[in-house]
Design goal:
With 182 residues, this protein is mainly α. Helices cover 78% and strands 0% of the residues. The chain has a domain at 9-120. It is rod-shaped and about 175 Å long.
Amino acid sequence: MFREEKKPKSFVSGLVTGSVIGGIAALLFAPKSGKELRMDISEKSNEVLGDANQLYINAKEKGSNMIADVKSKAESMLDDGKNKVESITTGASELIDQGKEKADSIVKGVEDYLSNGKEMVENEVAVVKDAVKSGVDAYNDERNKNSDRSKNYSLGSNYDKSSDKSKSYSQGSNYDKNKNKY
């Protein structure tokens, strides 16, 4: 059986050799005279050489066609590969650009959020400071009012000098000295 690994030239040469040997054997075993035998051998050898030459030409054409087909397919595959690489490169470039845009947008959003957050915190701190100041002012005002009342009540009332706190014992107040409470 013919193997695909062998070259076409060896197949053709084997075919030619087999044809020549077969032709010679047929002529030698045929019952003819010498002149006829030489003539038949000459004709058969010319016929075999013609057939071999035709086989060689056919094989050469087929080989050329196969080489051209393979070359064409290889070029086509190479072009397809180049196009795919270019497409992938373009797609990757677009994805990178989109990623950069999204990252820039996120950074901008974070910067805006931090800026707004800082302003909000500063506003809240100002509100808390104002509230604390108002509370302190209200406390001081209340303390001053109580101090003024104490002074007003103490002018005509009993004043306990032994205690640190001055309390008024005027008109029906229920003050317990031991507990320092009304």
